């Protein structure tokens, strides 16, 4: 019943509005005249004294509105239109990391889905159009609607899993692309979030195929290389299986094996494996040699800090902020020789020395020679400034809140920060944290980093006074600062990122990108001279540019996607009903015609009556 | 507002050569009841009469005394002037219909007549009447004699607002309470009252020896019955009385006939009582009104 839907009930209120208009018209418009004496000869209307006047116009309009309301409300006889007769069929594939899991049969979950889809295409009546849509980080239509089975099968066969977690937004986008299809089949290794299919407003029910059997999987959750010659490193390994699993873990640093052991990991538990301390800084590679269902999370890279002594300069007008920042710099690399100074007292630091890192808080000291610079709460451009600003400050907010951060996505609860500067971020910088002022809707960058010709530049737009970075309730602020520092002090030829992260590499000409599977492609730089890459496979990417090679190590781990012990059986099939309101809308046209015709007839008669009245009164309008 | 035109040079220039005729002579025997006690203040000789005790010796005709040895007093025509009161109806009906600006038209004509009246340096004043808050309110300006002081009427003319009922009889009663010398009273109104009301009011003015002239002001719409067609309700702006009407061409003609009948009845009454009657139907006919209707009020070039 359509009017059980509150939205449809609103349509019925139009009848109440008509009654209100009728009553209002019964009260009649009143015209003020100089004297009723002049109207003594004018006859009063015949129906003046009747309480309920049978107004033809009212009943005609009521009939028209009622017919239209019933049409919109869905109170009409439905003609059964079988959905299966539709000739458009959408095949949607989950391309998340979990679909790359290999079962005991040696077949991946995606391969099982492809096999099932091929069978569906083969069994479909001739002339059925298929479209192939994949989704992981985002949705992509691999094959638009086609009636040729060979093309469809080729598109299905070309699908490949990505080492990223599937985003619900990507599934929603994929369902939207299938909105016009008469039949939708979804292949995934886990059920979609509740209500998501209903929200998509599909015209047809979704035929959901869950592929893949539960499988054992081990994953390297994280790796901390520690400080060479100082502290031990730690690797965290997690077992997603309901059974104890052996895990042969190998850790290499500088091309040399520093740890190799076989461990037994408890069911659905994580263990911390210590190693080291390392003897030198550099790239650390951990991998699980034991074969399991998912290979993408079996290796991980980290960068151990260099053992060479380096100089860092921390300048801040606030002594407490200087102290906090110096501690953080030392926590990243204990080999830093940190000089902390007040920018108002130039004698406290030496400008002539080359620094490996300069952290400038709420100041813009010019002429400091540093390989990497982190500008925290940069001061606005002053009329007395001699040089143009590196990062132009366009405004300030009194209280900012961090809403999203790279690596964490959109934060569950915004992190309240102090005052912040709004910086017009140059194109060569990439924002890694964003936020907005309290009560404001325009977001701006709170953390960013990038590389110029004379070194790396980082930005922290919020103020770090009052021990903000040591506040446990605002840990995301500390993480943003640490991440930014790590990014700018990292070797320029090496990046360690999570899969799915956008990586920008300076390249002023075309660059050749070699993926972990050996595939190569040529990328052109954008207007800022950057080549951008979003690694979708775990492993080593090599970007060869004219300025030199850049190695990108892509780590993958997602607790939800790596958990392959799904309770459902393999190849489970279920039909998820689509939004019934949409079904109503689609089947309205043939049956609602009599009601619409009634409405039109009523409006036509009303027009005739109005025209007759106009003729009787001798006016050109009513 | 139309009334502001009353002070425009072009409008006044049209009135410069006009004067307001009167049936009453401007000179009258001064101190008729006190013969010998007062003399006319004029310079134009009128007559001679025998001296009586108490007469002013300044008017003794010394030549006649020397020639005839008789005490003779010379009399002169008195330089008396006629007070002109221009009464403008400011009741609520004068603001309806709003497009017609009846009040503006009445004020423009009234001010014009006042300007004409000043041509003989007669004392002229403007008055507005309407019944408000239970009592009749008659607002008057001071008398002005010279045309140089005509602009003193401007605040009164431009600041007048409509409201209240038309209580013509009560307004006339208030005017007569001042007990001033009878003069010329010009009434400008739509006279949308019962015939008994205006007959009583005008009769009282005549009984008080006033020379009465009236200008019947009506709007274009109400004089032609040009109301919108349809079924609606009309409300009397003064009494608040309501009436349902179904208006069409026939009803429009009926309204026009009723307005014409009302005007004819008023005109007939004025004819019977010797009251000068002029019509001013519609501000759009202002020039025609001044050319055709002003002479009916005794305005002469």
Tell me what you see in this structure:
The complex is a heterodimer of chains A (622) and B (301). Chain A has 622 residues and is of the alpha/beta class. Chain A has 5 domains: 2-80 and 587-617, no CATH class; 83-214 and 566-586, von Willebrand factor, type A domain (Rossmann fold), CATH 3.40.50; 218-305, Immunoglobulin-like; 310-490, Class I glutamine amidotransferase (GATase) domain (Rossmann fold); 491-565, Immunoglobulin-like, CATH 2.60.40. Chain A contains 12 helices and 32 strands. Chain A has a 9-stranded mixed beta sheet, covered by helices on one side. Chain A has a 6-stranded mixed beta sheet with strand order 4-3-2-5-6-32. In chain A, β22 (429-437) and β23 (443-452) form a beta hairpin. Chain A starts with 5 loop residues before the first helix and ends in a 5-residue tail after the last helix. Chain B folds into 2 domains: 2-25 and 81-300, von Willebrand factor, type A domain (Rossmann fold, 3-Layer(aba) Sandwich); 32-76, no CATH class. Chain B is 32% helix and 23% strand. A 6-stranded mixed beta sheet of chain B has the order 6-5-4-7-8-11, sandwiched between helices. A two-stranded antiparallel ribbon of chain B has the order 1-12. In chain B, strands 2-3 form a two-stranded antiparallel ribbon. In chain B, a hairpin with a 5-residue loop joins β9 and β10 (242-247). Chain B starts with 8 loop residues before the first helix and ends with a strand. Chain A binds chain B through residues 28-45, 48, 616-619, 622, and chain B through 93-94, 96-97, 102, 190, 192, 219, 222, 225, 227-239, 241-249, 251, 254-255, 257-259, 262. β1 of chain A pairs parallel with β9 (230-236) of chain B, so a sheet runs across the interface.
């Amino acid at each position: 019943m359509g009017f059980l839907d509150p939205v449809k009930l609103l349509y019925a209120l139009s009848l109440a509005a008509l009654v209100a208009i009728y009553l209002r018209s019964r009260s009649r418009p009143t015209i003020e005249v100089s004297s009723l004496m002049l109207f003594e000869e004018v006859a009063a209307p015949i129906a003046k004294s009747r309480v309920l006047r049978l107004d033809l116009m009212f009943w005609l309009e009521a009939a028209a509105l009622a017919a239209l309301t019933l049409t919109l409300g869905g109170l009409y006889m439905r003609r059964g239109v079988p959905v299966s007769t539709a000739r458009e069929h959408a095949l949607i594939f989950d391309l998340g990391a979990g679909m790359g899991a290999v079962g005991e049969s040696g077949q991946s979950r995606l391969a099982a889905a492809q096999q099932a889809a091929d069978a569906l295409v083969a069994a479909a009546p001739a002339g059925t159009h298929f479209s192939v849509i994949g989704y992981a980080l985002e949705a992509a239509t691999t094959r638009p609607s086609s009636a040729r089975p060979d093309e469809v099968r080729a598109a299905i066969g070309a699908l490949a899993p990505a080492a990223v977690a599937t985003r619900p937004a990507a599934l929603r986008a994929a369902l939207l692309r299938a909105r016009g299809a008469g039949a939708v089949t979804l292949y995934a290794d886990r059920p979609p979030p509740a209500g998501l299919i209903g929200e998509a407003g599909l015209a047809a029910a979704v035929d959901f195929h869950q592929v893949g059997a539960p499988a054992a999987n081990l994953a390297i959750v994280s790796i901390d290389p520690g400080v060479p010659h100082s502290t031990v490193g730690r690797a965290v390994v997690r077992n997603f299986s309901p059974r104890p699993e052996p895990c042969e873990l190998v850790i290499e640093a500088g091309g040399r094996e520093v740890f190799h052991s076989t461990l037994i990991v408890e069911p659905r538990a994580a263990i911390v494996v210590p190693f080291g301390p390392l003897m030198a800084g550099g790239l650390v590679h951990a991998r699980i040699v034991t074969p399991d269902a998912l290979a993408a999370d079996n290796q991980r890279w980290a960068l151990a800090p260099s053992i060479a002594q380096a100089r860092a300069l921390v300048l801040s007008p606030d002594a407490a902020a200087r102290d906090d920042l110096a501690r953080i710099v030392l926590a990243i690399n204990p080999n830093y020789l940190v000089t902390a100074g007040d920018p108002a007292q130039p004698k406290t630091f030496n400008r002539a020395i080359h620094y490996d890192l300069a952290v400038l808080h709420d100041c813009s000291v010019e002429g400091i020679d540093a390989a990497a610079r982190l500008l925290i709460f940069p001061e606005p451009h002053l009329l007395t400034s001699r040089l143009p600003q590196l990062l132009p400050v366009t405004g300030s907010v009194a209280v900012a809140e961090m809403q999203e951060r790279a690596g964490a996505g959109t934060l569950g609860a915004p992190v309240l920060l102090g005052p912040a500067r709004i910086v017009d971020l140059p194109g060569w910088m990439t924002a890694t944290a964003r936020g907005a002022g309290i009560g404001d809707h325009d977001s701006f960058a709170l953390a960013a980093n990038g590389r110029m010709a004379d070194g790396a530049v980082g930005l922290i737009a919020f103020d770090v006074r009052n021990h903000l970075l040591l506040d446990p309730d605002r840990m995301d602020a500390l993480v943003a600062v640490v991440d930014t520092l790590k990014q700018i002090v990292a070797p320029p030829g090496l990046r360690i990122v999570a899969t799915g992260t956008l990586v920008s590499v300076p390249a002023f000409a075309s660059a050749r990108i070699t993926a972990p599977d050996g595939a190569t492609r040529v990328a052109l730089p954008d207007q800022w001279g950057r080549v951008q890459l979003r690694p979708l496979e775990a492993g080593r990417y090599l970007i060869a540019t004219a300025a030199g090679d850049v190695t990108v190590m892509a780590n993958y781990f997602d607790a939800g996607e790596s958990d392959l012990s799904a309770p459902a059986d393999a190849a489970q099939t279920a039909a998820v009903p689509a939004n019934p309101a949409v079904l109503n809308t689609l089947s309205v046209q043939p049956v609602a015609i009599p009601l619409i015709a009634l409405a039109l007839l009523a409006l036509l008669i009303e027009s005739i009556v109005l025209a007759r009245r106009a003729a009787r009164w001798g006016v050109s309008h009513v | 507002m139309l009334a502001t035109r009353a002070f425009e040079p072009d409008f006044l220039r049209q009135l410069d050569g006009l004067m307001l005729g009167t049936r009453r002579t401007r000179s009258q025997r001064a101190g008729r009841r006190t013969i010998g006690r007062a003399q006319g203040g004029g310079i134009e000789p009128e007559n001679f009469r025998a001296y009586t005790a108490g007469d002013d010796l300044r008017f003794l005709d010394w030549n006649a005394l020397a020639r005839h040895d008789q005490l003779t007093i010379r009399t002169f025509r008195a330089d008396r002037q006629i007070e002109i009161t221009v009464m403008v109806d400011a009741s609520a009906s004068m603001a309806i219909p709003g497009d017609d600006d009846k009040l503006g038209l009445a004020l423009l004509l009234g001010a014009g007549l006042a300007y004409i009246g000043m041509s003989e340096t007669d004392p002229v004043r403007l008055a507005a009447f309407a019944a408000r808050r239970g009592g009749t309110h008659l607002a008057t300006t001071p008398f002005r004699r010279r045309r140089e002081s005509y602009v003193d009427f401007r605040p009164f003319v431009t600041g007048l607002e409509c409201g209240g009922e038309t209580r013509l009889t009560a307004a006339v009663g208030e005017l007569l309470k001042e007990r001033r010398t009878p003069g010329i009273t010009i009434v400008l109104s739509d006279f949308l009252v019962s015939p008994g009301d205006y007959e009583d009011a005008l009769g009282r003015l005549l009984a008080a020896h006033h020379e009465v002239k009236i200008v019947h002001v009506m709007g274009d719409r109400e004089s032609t019955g040009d109301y919108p067609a349809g079924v609606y309700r009309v409300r009397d702006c003064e009494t608040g009385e309501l009436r349902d009407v179904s208006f069409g061409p026939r009803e429009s003609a009926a309204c026009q006939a009723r307005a014409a009948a009302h005007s004819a009845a008023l005109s007939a009454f004025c004819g019977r009582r010797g009251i000068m009657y002029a019509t001013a139907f519609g501000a759009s006919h202002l020039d025609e009104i001044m050319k055709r209707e002003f002479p009916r009020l005794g305005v002469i070039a």
